[in-house]
Amino acid sequence: MDKLIQKAIENNEVMAERVSSARWKPDEPHPQLYYTYDNNKQAWEPAEDAPLPQGLASGRLGITRLALYSWNVDFMLPFPKPRMDAALDHLESLTSKLPPTTAAVVFLQECLEEDLATVGEKRWIREKFHVTDIDTMSWASYYGTTTLVDRHLDITSCFRVHYQKTRMQRDAFFVDISLGSSHPKTVRLCNTHLESLAYEPPYRPPQMQLVAKHMHAEGVDGALAAGDFNAIQPFDRTLHLENDLKDAYLELGGREDSEEGYTWGQQAATNLRERFGCSRMDKVYFTGSLKLHSFERFGADIQISDQSQRDEIVDLGFEKPWITDHLGIKAEVEVVD
Fold this sequence. Notes:
Blueprint (H helix, E strand, L loop, with lengths): L1 H13 L1 H5 L8 E3 L3 E4 L4 E4 L10 H4 L4 E8 L7 H16 L6 E11 H9 L1 H6 E3 L11 E8 L3 E9 L8 E9 L5 E8 L11 H12 L6 E7 L10 H4 L3 E2 H4 L18 H7 L5 E7 L1 E9 L8 H9 L12 E8 L2
Parallel strand pairs: 4-5, 10-11
Antiparallel strand pairs: 1-8, 2-3, 4-15, 5-7, 6-7, 8-9, 9-10, 11-13, 12-13, 14-15
């Protein structure tokens, strides 16, 4: 496992060349395309943002709630395709159970270019979702974040903000949607993978401050930020309070340092779990005209099936051939006046 970590560090250093010649300016919004699958062309084609005054698709269809799923699918482990296949199969089983009044959005972190191809080939995704990335051109690293948005939702804006303060080429990826049955409101969704590890000075506070700035922006009625927040230090516990945000898990009575809240460690390599323990790395923050209905974890004990691949992952120091070291998190919200 240590060799995989070292390889990831080396690959990230190589990506510094891309950053130096990037088309974007750090800490500033950079517009990004999103895509809809065209059955006639058998290809993902760029879609157009829906004009704000016409953002009524969700209302016409009676969609009143949003189910947000967020999952970090480990980029360092071998066999990315069968692991992502298993992750997407699990997400399909979850999203297919939603009632017709609830739309789904999926945040993925630590995606590789191969993962984007795997996402794009799934029939259920082609039929039901917009995708935000079909290549890695908007990423500053060789892995990144991508978002799937229910096609019943109008997307009114899509942009990525690359952090100035980052050692790991991280960013905040925003998608604005129109949600609500009678009077649709603008809901801003942020998919982010905050800085890892306990470096000094810490960069997660300024990163979350930048995220919150866009969540509280004028014209945004409600906002959610979710992802792998790498919450491993004491200051991480108050980032939501310092930025006038609510922590979905805590809002519904969840407690810090409890088994039911942990999202990392249970499926980590054994030596890493023994060294660092378990933690609530993955979170959902929200603000504005949103009512939180539920928060839960998903993705426990999802494994790959091929026996030789299973053996290889276990040989890396895992108790079982899990597809990722993180559990996923889901929050369900409703727009309120």
